[in-house]
Write a structure and sequence with these properties.
A 5-stranded parallel β-sheet has the order 4-5-6-1-7, with helices on both faces. It is 45% helix and 11% strand. Helix 5 runs parallel beside helix 6, helix 8 packs parallel to helix 10 and helix 14 packs across helix 15. Strand 5, helix 7 and strand 6 form a beta-alpha-beta unit.
């Protein structure tokens, strides 16, 4: 951020006592251009991808680590930057003795949360390789594969695809990816997931990149950096950042969700700084373990609407799935039947986004009543959903 922007933020504090938020800077699902504290990871990945700068495909690789460790932040930003190089008709490579024009592979980032079928994978890979309009329906997987194969044949150096969030509940695993990309010789891949790949996966040991949780001081720096860009003035002090970082235990997603939740509380009270009470409330709004908001926002729009309505229900309306479904369906903006909402709630419970907490007993057959509890950061989700 430049100095003028910082001055404007401080001026805004003097003229408006409310807390004003830049949601993109605080959002756990928004990736900044320069991820804090992940320089060594970037260097390791650049070493791995180095053959691309000579016009060759790098070997396949895997990046893995726990939720909130910055994997997606690093890979998505890195591939975005590399894509801007590969889209040039001839990348100029500077060496010690000459300037050489070299065709480099095209870099494409794919999110497996959304590209969870072979058809969708081919389509999103095509979108990254071509400026032409790619149909989203009305054609089959074979048609999409043939179009992709034809497009790749026109790429002098092939393509490198990063497939993020592979192996999560709603997405397929690496075996599926291997089958889908096996016929495409001109593609190398880099998977991003939470668990270490099985030893049987054909990836060399030096192409398996483990990403650890953030160290506490690095996470404090990350929070302070995001807060300085997302809040006016000195809204978050170092003590507040430390409290959040200690609680988050190296998980940047949960830390940022708590920070955004604290800001929501402060805004509601008309404050322009985060107090200890605000921070405590922000922390309380994030369940542990918490489902990533990225998973929530990758759901179909109607299921997101159900979740948005659910978190506004009072405790009595969430005492059972049936009661919650009726209350949600009664909201005019939902436009879904009670039976559809009920089915959605059961589906969301099966994949762990909400939890059915049994309570009471039943004398007859069937399930006992189950209170519906969200397993994702409520305040952060509400602010980001409503801000769209």
């Amino acid at each position: 951020m430049d100095i003028d922007a910082r001055i404007r933020r401080r001026q805004r504090v003097q003229t408006d006592r409310r807390l004003i938020i830049d949601y993109d800077r605080l959002s756990p699902v928004a990736h900044v251009e320069d991820p804090v504290g992940r320089g060594p990871v970037v260097e390791r990945l650049l070493d791995h991808l180095d053959p691309a700068f000579s016009g060759e495909l790098p070997p396949n690789g895997c990046v893995y680590g726990p939720k909130g460790s910055g994997k997606s932040a690093v890979v998505s930003v890195l591939f975005d930057r590399l894509a801007s190089v590969s889209l040039q008709p001839g990348a100029v490579i500077h060496t010690a003795t000459r300037v050489q024009v070299t065709d480099v592979p095209t870099f494409v980032y794919v999110d497996a949360r959304k590209s969870n079928t072979t058809f969708a994978l081919y389509r999103d890979l095509l979108n990254g390789l071509s400026d032409e309009s790619i149909p989203e329906q009305g054609v089959g997987t074979d048609w999409m594969f043939e179009r992709l194969e034809r497009t790749l044949s026109q790429q002098a150096a092939g393509a490198v695809v990063a497939v993020d969030h592979l192996g999560e509940v709603e997405s397929n695993g690496i075996e599926w990816l291997l089958d889908a990309l096996k016929p495409l010789d001109a593609v190398s891949w880099l998977t991003v997931g939470r668990t270490a790949p099985d030893p049987s996966i054909p990836v060399d040991a030096d192409a398996r990149f483990a990403v650890d949780r953030y160290q506490e001081q690095v996470l404090i720096d990350l929070l302070m950096t995001r807060a300085n860009e997302g809040f006016p003035g000195e809204s978050l002090n170092h003590a507040g950042a430390r409290r959040i970082a200690e609680w988050a235990d190296g998980d940047a997603h949960d830390a940022l969700a708590a920070l955004l939740g604290a800001a929501d509380v402060a805004m509601s009270d008309g404050n322009n700084h985060l107090s200890e009470t605000d921070i405590a409330a922000g922390i309380d709004s994030v369940p542990r373990p918490a489902v990533s908001l990225g998973r929530i926002f990758s759901l179909p729009a109607n299921k997101q609407t159900v979740l948005r309505t659910l978190i506004d229900l009072d405790d009595d309306d969430r005492e059972s799935v049936t009661t919650a479904a009726s209350a949600i369906a009664a909201v005019e903006t939902v436009s879904l039947s009670t039976s559809t909402v009920k089915r959605f709630l059961y589906q969301l419970a099966e994949i762990g986004i909400i939890e059915r907490v049994p309570h009471g007993t039943t004398s007859g057959k069937g399930r006992p009543p189950s209170r519906v509890e969200p397993r994702f950061p409520i305040r952060a989700f509400r602010k980001l959903y409503d801000a769209r």
